[in-house]
Structure to design on (985 residues):
C-alpha cells in the first residue's frame, strides 16, 4: 500500500471544520464532568446539604447547556458541510 | 362505570387512529410521497421509544422512592447522543453499509458472520427483554385497574389477566401487520416508525399536561413547587455516588445495546444526517420528559394517602383531583409509551429470532439446501410473525407468573444490566481490529452468567430461585462467591455490584480471549471492514463463484426479496458486467452484492449460509483471499493501464506536433511556390511585352533587329508555354489523376531516343555519352513515354549543368535483386551537399542562373517515377553529378 497522500496544511475552512468536530467531540466530556459534580456534594447527614430544588436547577441547567451547545454545533457543522460541497462543486 | 366505558372507547379510537397513521405512512412511502417520513424530527421522535411506560409511570415512582436518582436513566442516553460523533455515527454508518438488521446481526457480522454468536445474542436479548415487555403489559393493565377502581369498579385478577392478554394480542397484531407487511431489503418500517413518532408526541404532551397541571394548578407556581419539594421527604440531596455514576453508565450502555433502540437508531435510520439533529433534539426531549417528574412525585406524596403506589401518581393525582379528561390523556400517554415499546421490541426481537434461529434451523432441515422449491420469502415472513407473537406472549407469560408485584424501576434496571453486557463486544468490535469471535463469545458468556447470578436470580427474592443460605454464605459455603458480595467485598449496592463485576469481568475475559486466540480470515476481513468503515464502505470479503449457478441464485433471491426486485437486481448486475439478458456471471463482486441484499431480509449470517450452500464453500477459502488479492492486482493493473494511456497520449501529442510542423512547412512551401510561379510567369511576360512594344512603336527598326526581337518574343513565349506545360504536368502528376500508357519496349531504344532528343541543338558543346548497349537489352513494360521524359530531363540537365571542359555522361544499367537501376553520371563538379536535399523540390535551381529553366524538371521526374512505382534519387560520391533511376523488378521481368 502506498502512503496516503496528505496535505500538511489545510485551508482555513477545512481547518475550522476540524476544530468544530473537536468541539463536538469534547461536548460529551464536558457534560460528563459537569454531571459528575453531584458526586462531590454533601450527603443528607451533613449540615450544609444541597436541597433537591438546587440540585434540579443545576442538573437541568447543564442539560440545557448541552442541548443548546449541541444544537448550535450541529447547525454549524451542517453549514460548514454545505460550504464544503459548494466549494467542491 | 360510564367514564370507564368512555376510556375504553377513547382507547379503541386511539388504536384505530394509530392503525390509520401507520397505514397512511406505509402508503405514502410506497407511492414515493414519503419525503416527510424521512425528516430528522421523525427520526428523533422514534428514538423516544427509549421512554417506555417505565419512564411515564415508573420515573415518578422512582423519584418518590429515591429522589433524583431517576435522572441518571436519562442523563446516560443524553451523553451518548451528545457524543454522537464518537460512537453513533460509526454505528449508523456500519449499519447502513453492511445492511445490519439487528444488534445480533451486527455482532455476528463483525465476528466472522458467526451464527452461534448470533443465536447467543438473540437468546440473551430475548431473556433481557421479556421482563421489560411484561413491565409494559403490567403498566397498561394496572393503569386500567387504577382507573376502574377510581370509579368503584374493582377488577378481578382474571379480568386483569384477560386485559393484559387483550393488549398483548392487539400489539402483536399491529406489529405483524406493519412490521412484516413486506420483506424490505433495508428492513425499514415506515408505518411503525410513524406510529411510534405520533405516540412519542402523545406521551410527551400527556406528561407535560399533568406536570403543568401539578405545578401551576395544584402547587401554585414554580417557587411554591420548589418549596414543597424541599420540604418533602426527598427534599435533600441523598445520592450514593456509586449508584449515580453506575446508573449513568448503565443507561448509556443500555441505550446503545437495547434491541429496540438499535432497531430505531441504526436499522430504521434513513439518513446519517438525521443523527446530527437527533444529537441535540433527543437530549432535549429527554430533558422535557423528566422535567416534571419530581413535582408530580412530591405533590402525589402530599396529596394521596400514604401507601398508595407512587408508580401511578401520573394517573392518580389527576383522578384524585377530579380531573377526568387529564387523567384520560395521561392514560393515553402511558398506553402510548407501553405500546410503542412493545411494538418495536417485538419487531426487533422477531427479526433476530427469525433470522438467527428459525431460518438457520429451517434451512438445515431442507435437505436440498437453499435452492429447493418452496417460498422462502413466505417462510421468512411466517417465522417473523410467529416470532412476534411468541415474544409478546413470553412477556405476557412473565407478567402472569411474576404476578405484577415488582416495582417498575427495578425490573427495568435488571433488564438494562442484562443488555449492557453487549457493550464491550460492541465497542470492541467497531474500534478494535484485534477483537475475535472467541473473545466475544467468552466475554458475553461470562458477563451474562455473572449478571444472572448476581442480579437476575436474586431479584426473584431470597428463597425462590436462590436460597437464603446461598445469598448469605455463598454456594457450597464458598463465601467469596456470594451473589451480592464477590471476593468478600460486601456493602456494595447489589445493582452496582452486579454491573461492576459483570461488565469488568466481561470486558477482561473478552479482551484476554481475543489476545490469546487467532481470528479466522473472515473475522479479520470483517474486523477491518467495521473498524475502518469510514475509509472503505465496501466489503472485501467475497465469494468465489466459479461453481455457482446463477439460475439457482436467481431462484433463491426471488423467493427472498421478491420476484421483481430480484429480476431487477440481476438485470442491473448483468448490465454492469456488460452482458445482455437477465443472468449475470456469478462473479465474486456480484455474489457479494447479492449477499448484502439478501442480508437485508434474512440477516448476514443466514444470507452468507444460503449463498454458501449454492456456491459451495461456506467459509472463506483461498479463492476468496485470492479475489481480495485480485482486487489489489486489478488496481495495480488499472494504474499501469493509466500510465500506458498517458504515454500513448504523449505519443499522440508528439505526432500531432510533428504533423503541425509539417503542415506549417507545407503551407510555407505553397506560399513560396505561388510567389515563384508568379515570378516565373512574370519574367518572360515582361520581356514579351517590352519587345512587342518596341516592335509596335518604333518604325526605324532594321530587319535584323525585327527578326531578333520577334525571335526573343517567340522564345519567351515558348518558355512560357513550357513552364505552363510543366506546371500542368506536375499538377496532374501530383493529384494522381495521370493515366499511364503502358507499353512494351526495349530500354536501349528509349535511351537512344532520350539521348538524341536531349542533345539536339547542343552544338559544339555536345557532351560525350558513354553507354554499354549490351546491358541495355532489356524489355520493359511500363509507360515508355513518361520514362523517356525522365531520361531526357536527366540527360538534358547533365548537358546544361556539367561544367567540365570535356563533358562526358556515363549511363550505366544494372539489375540487382529484381530491380532495374539506371545511373546517369557526369564528370562535372556535382551538386553541393547543401543543395542535394532540395534539388527535387519545385523551382529549385542550383548555382548561378546561367541556364534558363523553371526548376520543375526534377520535381516532375520524381513524380513520374513515383507513379511508375520506381524512384529517382541523387547518387552522391561518383565524382560528378549522378542520378539513379530505379524501376521495380516486375516492370522488367513482366516483359521478358
Amino acid at each position: 500500500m502506498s502512503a496516503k497522500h496528505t496535505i500538511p496544511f489545510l485551508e482555513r475552512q477545512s481547518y475550522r471544520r476540524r476544530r468544530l468536530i473537536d468541539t463536538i467531540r469534547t461536548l460529551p466530556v464536558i457534560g460528563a464532568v459537569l454531571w459528575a459534580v453531584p458526586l462531590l456534594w454533601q450527603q443528607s447527614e451533613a449540615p450544609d446539604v444541597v436541597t433537591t430544588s438546587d440540585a434540579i436547577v443545576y442538573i437541568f441547567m447543564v442539560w440545557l447547556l448541552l442541548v443548546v451547545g449541541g444544537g448550535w454545533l450541529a447547525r454549524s457543522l451542517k453549514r460548514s458541510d454545505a460550504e464544503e460541497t459548494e466549494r467542491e462543486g | 362505570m360510564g367514564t370507564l366505558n368512555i376510556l375504553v372507547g377513547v382507547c379503541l379510537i386511539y388504536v384505530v387512529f394509530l392503525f390509520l397513521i401507520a397505514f397512511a405512512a406505509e402508503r405514502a412511502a410506497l407511492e414515493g410521497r414519503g419525503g416527510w417520513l424521512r425528516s430528522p424530527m421523525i427520526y428523533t421522535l422514534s428514538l423516544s421509544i427509549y421512554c417506555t411506560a417505565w419512564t411515564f409511570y415508573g420515573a415518578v415512582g422512582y423519584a418518590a422512592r429515591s429522589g433524583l436518582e431517576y435522572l441518571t436513566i436519562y442523563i446516560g442516553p443524553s451523553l451518548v447522543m451528545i457524543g454522537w460523533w464518537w460512537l453513533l455515527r460509526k454505528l449508523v454508518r456500519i449499519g447502513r453499509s453492511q445492511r445490519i438488521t439487528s444488534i445480533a446481526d451486527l455482532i455476528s457480522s463483525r465476528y466472522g458472520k458467526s451464527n452461534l454468536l448470533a443465536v447467543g445474542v438473540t437468546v440473551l436479548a430475548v431473556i433481557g427483554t421479556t421482563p421489560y415487555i411484561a413491565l409494559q403489559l403490567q403498566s397498561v393493565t394496572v393503569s386500567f385497574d387504577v382507573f376502574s377502581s377510581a370509579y368503584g369498579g374493582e377488577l378481578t385478577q382474571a379480568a386483569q389477566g384477560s386485559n393484559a392478554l387483550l393488549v398483548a394480542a392487539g400489539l402483536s397484531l399491529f406489529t405483524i401487520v406493519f412490521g412484516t407487511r413486506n420483506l424490505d431489503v433495508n428492513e425499514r418500517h415506515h408505518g411503525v416508525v410513524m406510529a411510534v413518532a405520533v405516540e412519542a408526541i402523545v406521551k410527551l404532551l400527556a406528561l407535560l399536561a399533568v406536570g403543568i397541571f401539578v405545578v401551576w394548578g395544584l402547587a401554585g407556581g414554580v417557587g411554591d413547587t420548589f418549596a414543597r419539594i424541599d420540604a418533602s421527604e426527598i427534599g435533600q440531596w441523598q445520592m450514593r455516588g456509586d449508584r449515580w455514576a453506575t446508573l449513568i453508565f448503565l443507561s448509556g450502555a443500555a441505550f446503545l445495546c437495547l434491541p429496540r433502540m438499535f432497531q430505531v437508531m441504526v436499522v430504521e435510520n434513513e439518513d446519517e444526517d438525521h443523527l446530527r439533529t437527533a444529537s441535540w433534539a433527543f437530549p432535549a426531549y429527554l430533558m422535557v420528559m423528566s422535567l416534571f417528574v419530581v413535582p408530580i412525585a412530591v405533590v402525589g406524596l402530599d396529596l394521596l394517602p400514604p401507601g398508595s403506589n407512587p408508580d401511578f401518581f401520573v394517573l392518580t393525582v389527576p383522578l384524585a383531583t377530579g380531573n377526568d379528561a387529564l387523567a384520560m390523556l395521561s392514560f393515553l400517554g402511558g398506553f402510548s409509551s407501553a405500546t410503542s415499546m412493545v411494538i418495536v421490541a417485538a419487531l426487533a426481537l422477531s427479526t433476530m429470532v427469525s433470522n438467527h434461529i428459525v431460518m438457520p434451523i429451517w434451512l438445515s432441515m431442507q435437505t436440498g439446501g437453499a435452492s429447493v422449491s418452496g417460498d422462502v420469502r413466505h417462510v421468512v415472513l411466517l417465522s417473523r410473525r410467529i416470532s412476534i407473537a411468541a415474544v409478546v406472549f413470553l412477556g405476557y407469560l412473565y407478567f402472569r407468573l411474576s404476578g405484577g408485584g415488582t416495582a417498575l424501576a427495578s425490573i427495568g434496571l435488571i433488564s438494562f444490566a442484562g443488555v449492557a453486557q453487549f457493550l464491550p463486544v460492541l465497542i470492541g468490535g467497531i474500534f478494535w481490529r484485534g477483537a475475535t469471535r472467541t473473545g466475544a463469545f467468552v466475554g458475553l458468556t461470562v458477563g451474562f452468567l455473572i449478571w444472572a447470578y448476581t442480579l437476575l436470580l436474586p431479584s426473584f427474592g431470597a428463597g425462590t430461585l436462590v436460597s437464603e443460605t446461598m445469598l448469605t454464605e455463598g454456594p457450597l459455603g464458598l463465601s467469596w462467591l456470594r451473589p451480592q458480595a464477590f471476593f468478600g467485598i460486601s456493602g456494595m449496592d447489589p445493582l452496582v455490584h452486579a454491573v461492576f463485576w459483570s461488565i469488568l469481568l466481561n470486558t477482561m475475559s473478552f479482551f484476554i480471549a481475543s489476545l490469546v486466540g487467532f481470528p479466522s480470515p473472515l473475522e479479520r476481513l470483517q474486523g477491518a471492514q467495521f473498524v475502518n468503515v469510514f475509509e472503505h464502505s465496501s466489503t472485501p470479503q467475497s465469494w468465489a463463484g466459479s461453481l455457482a449457478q446463477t439460475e439457482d441464485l436467481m431462484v433463491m433471491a426471488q423467493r427472498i426479496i421478491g420476484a421483481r426486485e430480484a429480476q431487477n437486481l440481476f438485470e442491473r448486475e448483468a448490465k454492469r458486467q456488460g452482458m445482455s439478458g437477465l443472468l449475470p456471471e456469478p462473479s465474486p463482486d456480484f455474489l457479494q452484492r447479492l449477499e448484502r441484499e439478501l442480508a437485508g431480509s434474512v440477516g448476514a449470517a443466514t444470507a452468507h449460509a444460503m449463498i454458501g450452500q449454492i456456491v459451495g464453500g461456506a467459509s472463506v477459502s483461498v479463492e476468496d483471499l485470492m479475489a481480495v488479492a485480485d482486487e489489489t492486482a486489478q488496481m495495480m493493473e488499472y494504474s499501469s493501464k493509466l500510465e500506458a494511456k498517458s504515454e500513448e497520449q504523449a505519443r499522440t501529442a508528439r505526432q500531432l506536433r510533428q504533423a503541425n510542423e509539417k503542415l506549417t512547412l507545407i503551407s510555407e512551401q505553397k506560399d513560396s511556390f505561388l510567389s515563384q510561379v508568379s515570378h516565373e510567369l512574370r519574367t518572360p511576360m515582361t520581356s514579351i511585352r517590352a519587345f512587342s512594344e518596341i516592335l509596335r512603336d518604333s518604325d526605324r527598326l532594321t530587319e535584323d533587329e525585327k527578326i531578333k526581337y520577334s525571335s526573343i518574343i517567340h522564345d519567351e513565349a515558348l518558355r512560357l508555354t513550357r513552364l505552363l506545360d510543366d506546371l500542368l504536368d506536375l499538377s496532374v502528376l501530383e493529384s494522381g489523376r495521370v493515366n499511364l500508357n503502358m507499353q512494351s519496349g526495349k530500354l536501349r531504344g528509349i535511351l537512344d531516343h532520350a539521348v538524341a532528343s536531349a542533345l539536339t541543338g547542343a552544338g559544339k558543346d555536345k557532351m560525350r555519352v558513354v553507354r554499354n548497349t549490351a546491358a541495355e537489352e532489356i524489355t520493359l513494360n511500363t509507360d515508355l513515354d513518361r520514362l523517356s521524359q525522365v531520361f531526357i530531363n536527366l540527360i538534358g540537365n547533365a548537358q546544361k549543368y556539367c561544367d567540365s571542359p570535356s563533358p562526358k555522361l556515363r549511363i550505366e544499367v544494372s539489375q540487382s535483386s529484381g530491380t532495374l537501376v539506371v545511373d546517369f553520371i557526369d564528370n562535372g563538379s556535382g551538386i553541393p551537399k547543401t543543395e542535394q536535399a532540395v534539388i527535387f523540390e519545385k523551382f529549385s535551381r542550383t548555382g548561378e542562373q546561367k541556364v534558363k529553366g523553371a526548376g520543375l524538371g526534377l520535381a516532375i521526374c520524381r513524380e513520374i517515377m513515383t507513379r511508375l512505382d520506381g524512384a529517382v534519387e541523387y547518387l552522391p560520391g561518383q565524382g560528378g553529378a549522378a542520378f539513379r533511376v530505379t524501376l521495380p523488378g516486375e516492370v522488367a521481368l513482366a516483359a521478358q
In short: The first helix of chain B runs from residue 2 to 30. The mean pLDDT of chain B is 80. The interface with chain A takes residues 67-68, 71, 75, 78-86, 226-227, 229-230, 232, 234-239, 241, 244-245, 248, 273, 276-277, 279-281, 283-284, 287, 291, 294 of chain B (CB under 8 Å). Residues 487 and 700 of chain B are 151 Å apart (CA to CA).
